[in-house]
Amino acid sequence: MNIVVLAAGMGKRMRSDLPKVLHPLAGKPLLGHVLDCARSLQPNRLVVIYGHGGEQVPTAMAADDLRWALQAPQLGTGHAVMQAVPELDDSVPTLVLYGDVPLTRPETLRRLVDAAGSDRLALLTVVLDDPSGYGRIVRDGDRIVRIVEQKDADDATLAIREINTGIMIAPTPALKRWLAGLSNSNAQAEYYLTDVVAAAVADGVAVVAAHPDAEWETLGVNSKRQLAELERIFQADLAGRLMDDGVMLADPARIDVRGTLRCGRDVSIDVNCVFEGVVTIGDGARIGANCVIRNATIGAGAQLLPFTHVEDARIGADARIGPYARLRPGTELAEHTHVGNFVEMKNTRMGAGSKANHLAYVGDAEVGERVNIGAGTITCNYDGANKFRTVIEDDAFIGSDTQLVAPVRVGAGATLGAGTTLTRDAPAGKLTVSRARQVTIDNWQRPTKKKSAA
Ligand code: UD1
Ligand code: CA
Predict the structure, then answer these.
(1) Domain chopping of the chain, boundaries
(2) Is the beta carbon of 76 within 6 A of some atom in ligand 1?
(3) How big, in percent rounded to 5, are the helix, strand and coil portions of the chain?
(4) How close is the Cα of 238 to the center of ligand 1, in Å?
(5) Which residue, 354, 349, 358, 360, is CA-closest to 390?
(6) How far is the CA of 87 from the centre of ligand 1 (A)?
(7) Phi and psi for 216 in degrees, rounded to 5?
(8) What is the CATH number of domain 224-432?
(9) Exposed/middle/buried for residue 155 (C-beta within 10 Å: 0-12, 13-18, 19+)
(10) Element spanning 207, H or E
C-alpha cells in the first residue's frame, strides 16, 4: 500500500514554536510514533505531508524511506492528500494517517486494510459518548453514505455518535479522481478529505468501517493537556504489558519508559523510575525508587538502590549500586562490584568484586578485580586540555582521600596510604604514601585575645 501521513497542520493550541508533530511522547516525536507504526505495515510508498514549521519537520525526521510533500498554504485535509498524488502508486491502495494521532496500533490498521481489500473505501470509526468536534458518520440503514463535519452539521446529524477518526484507506486511482472533484464550499472553506465518502457512494464504491480495540488509539493531540493525557495512556499501557510479562512494578502509575525496556524474570522496579533509550535488565535484578537509567544493561541479580543514575553503561551480575551513584557513559562494572553513595564513574572498567563505596570520582580508569577504592578517592584525569588514564591492578587498596594524577598506574596488591597524591606509578605489593610526616609541637601555646585597655 501507499501510506500518506498528514503533518502540515499548524497546531495553534500547542502554543509552541516547535511544530506539533515534533512534540515528544514517551521521548519520541508524535510523528515518529506514526511513522514507526506505518513502517510496520511495510508500505510501498511512505509520504509525509508537511507545511507548518517549514523544513523543521523533514529535517528532524529525515529518513531514506520517506517522501516529503509540501502543503503550502494548508487548505484542508483533502488538499493535504492532493499534495501526495504524484507520489502514489496506482496499483495499491492508499492509507491516510494523521501525524498527530500517535497511539494507533498496527493490528488496528491491518484490520482496516483487510476491510478495504482492493476495491472498497474503509474508514476507521468509533462510537463516542461525546462526539463533539468530530466529523459524523452518516448512515442510511447500515450503509455509510457520507461524513458531515461538526461545523456543517444540523441538529439531527450532531446527535450521531459514530465519528470519523480521520484514518481511511481507498483504492488509489479512485481516490485521485475523488480528490480532483473536491470543492471547498463548506463552513470552513476547506477541501475536506471526508467528502471522498459521498464521492465513493456516488461512484458505486462500497464504503465500510473498521474499529480500533481501544478508543485511545484514535486520540489526537491538539494541546499540551492532550499530549500529557496521551503520555499517561501510553505509559499505563506499557506498564500493563510489563506486568503481563512478569515484571513487578511497585506502582504501574509511577514508571516512565521512553524507549525500549527489556526485563528478565522476576525483575522488580520501585516507584518513579525513568528508563530511556534501550535498557535491558537481567533476571532477578531490583531497581530502587527514583532511578534514571538510559541505554544500559543491568546484570542478573544486580541491585540498584534509590536515586541511582546510569547512562550508556553496563552493570554486571549481582552488583550493588547506589544509593545516589552516578554511572556515566563508558562505565562497565563486572559481577559482584559495589558502587556506593556519591560515587561518580565515567569511561571506567571495574573488575569483579571491586568496590568504591563512598564519595569518589573514577574517570578514564581501568580497575582490576577485588580492588578497594576508599572514600574521597579522585582520579585526576584531566589537565585542562587532555584526558589521561589511570590503571589500578588487581587487589590494590586505595586509601581514603587519595588523588591519582593520571597517567598513573597502581600495581597489583599495592596499598596507597590515605591522603596520597600519586603522581608516579605505585609498585605492586608495597605501601606508597605521599604526605608530610605528622609532627607534634611541644609547649605550643594557642593564641589568646589581647585585653583592650580600659
Ligand atoms: C478531521 C476530519 C474529521 C475527523 C477529525 C478527527 C476532515 C475534513 N475532518 O477534522 O472528520 O473527525 O479530523 O480528528 O478531514 N492537516 C494537514 N493539512 C491541512 C489540514 C490538516 O496536514 O490543510 C493535518 C493536521 O495536521 C492533522 C490532520 O490533518 O494532523 C487533521 O487535521 P485537523 O485540522 O485536526 O482536522 P479536523 O478539522 O479536526
Ligand atoms: Ca484534530
Answers:
(1) 2-218, 224-432
(2) yes
(3) 20, 35, 45
(4) 28
(5) 349
(6) 21
(7) -65, -15
(8) 2.160.10.10
(9) exposed
(10) strand 207-210
Ligand nearest to the CA of 9: 1
Report CA torsion sign: 132, 134, 138, 143: negative
Residue ID of nearest Cα to ligand 1 atom 38: 134
- In short, whether 49's Cβ falls inside 6 Å of ligand 1 is yes
Homologous superfamily, domain 2-218: Spore Coat Polysaccharide Biosynthesis Protein SpsA; Chain A (3.90.550.10)
Q: Counting atoms of ligand 1 from 1, which one is nearest the CA of 191?
A: 8
The yes-or-no answer on residue 358 being catalytic is yes
- State the DSSP code for 387: B
What does the pLDDT profile of the chain (454 residues) look like in tens digits? 999 999 998 889 999 999 999 999 999 999 999 999 999 999 999 999 999 999 999 999 999 999 999 999 999 999 999 999 999 999 999 999 999 999 999 999 999 999 999 999 999 999 999 999 999 999 999 999 999 999 999 999 999 999 999 999 999 999 999 999 999 999 999 999 999 999 999 999 999 999 999 999 999 999 999 999 999 999 999 999 999 999 999 999 999 999 999 999 999 999 999 999 999 999 999 999 999 999 999 999 999 999 999 999 999 999 999 999 999 999 999 999 999 999 999 999 999 999 999 999 999 999 999 999 999 999 999 889 999 999 999 999 999 999 999 999 999 999 999 999 999 999 999 999 998 889 999 999 999 999 887 6
Q: Kindly report the pTM of this predicted structure.
A: 0.93
Q: What DSSP designation does 425 have? A: P
CA torsion sign, 114 to 163 to 202 to 81?
negative
Distance 66 CA to ligand 1 centre (A): 21
Residue 43: C-alpha distances to residues 46, 92, 405 (Å): 6, 9, 57
